[in-house]
Amino acid sequence: SRYGTSPDRGSRSAYTHMNRSRNIPALFAGPGHRLALATILLLQVILFAACGGHAEEGHEGHELGRFPATRPLLTDTVVQRDYVCQVHSIQHIELRALEKGYLQDMLVDEGEHVREGQLMFRIRPVLYQAEVQRAQAEAQFAEIEYRNTKALADSNVVSPNELALAKARLDKAQAELAAAQAHLGFTEITAPFSGIVGRFHVRKGSLLDEGELLTELSDNSTMWVYFNVPEAEYLDYKKRSLAGTGTKLKLKMANGQLFDQQGEITAIESDFNNTTGNIAFRATFPNPQGLLRHGETGSILMDSELKGVLLIPQKATFEVLDHRYVFVIDKDDTLRQTRIETGPELQHIFTVTQGLTKDDRFLLEGLRKVKDGEKVAVDLAPPDSVMKHLELYAE
Questions:
Q1: pLDDT tens digits for 233-248?
Q2: Is the CB of residue 121 less than 8 Å from the CB of residue 92?
Q3: Can you give the pTM of this predicted structure?
Q4: In 3-state terms, the chain is what percent helix, strand and coil (to 5)?
């Protein structure tokens, strides 16, 4: 119509298409169709839940499936023990004043290297020089008196007793002269050996008493390193030394670096400390570069050769009340919680002294997922392969 009440042909086509689109849901408008749609949706939910459940069960079965296992490795190895140590110079002494007096000269400096016989300190020698001069005069007088008496004795003017007295007075005077010269010599303090001067405890002009400490002197060409060893390890060491296997020593310094010289044990103390149960060892290290100084601390690293020992990964063990256990797998693939005794430790590795044989199988991983008496399926790995790739097995 004129007011648009009768659509044209093109408008009718669009209108019809729109109505068809709106009528698509009408296919399921009846009660039967709605029931079919609900049934289809319910089946889809059930199938989805079943698939999800199977996937979860498959994942759980993977976690609780096969466990890695291995056997102890029977081999010869070297273990390294660590002992706290004290470093000492082979010679370390105190230099003290032997006479009273004022310190006149200090001819060296702290930390200076001095030669054997080098003059280091001089105490003012005026009084001692006077004593020497007096003793020299008395010795000369006694010598003249002795000569005169001897001449008279040779002429039978005086008796032999008077000659003996003159000789005794001469000997006494000469002895007093020697003592005065010795006291004068004590005013000059020289280095008894080549070494490094320590810290000064006096200054020039100080009034010294007899025996007062001046400084220290250290010979650092060779160092003595002391460390304490428990009784059991002392017995092991003696057994190895008698067998001729020897012991190598290294020194780890305070900065964590290894000293570039190798040492050897040169002395063992005579008795044990009853309080600690330890005995003191002394190792000797050459110190050609003078790197080590008296009083340093560090750690002695002692290598010990072990013959025919069983090795297992540390991660395959667990502790219960201060005892160490592993899960041994018997011939029926059943886990048996087995107590073991361990010896020296290596990195990630225990040495086993009791509780296992080289043919025993034990669980390597998953210790927290199993319990004693449970049957498991295992993948057995060769022990040498496990040891070589031990860090790959670390949890």
A1: 898 888 877 665 567 7
A2: no
A3: 0.62
A4: 35, 35, 30
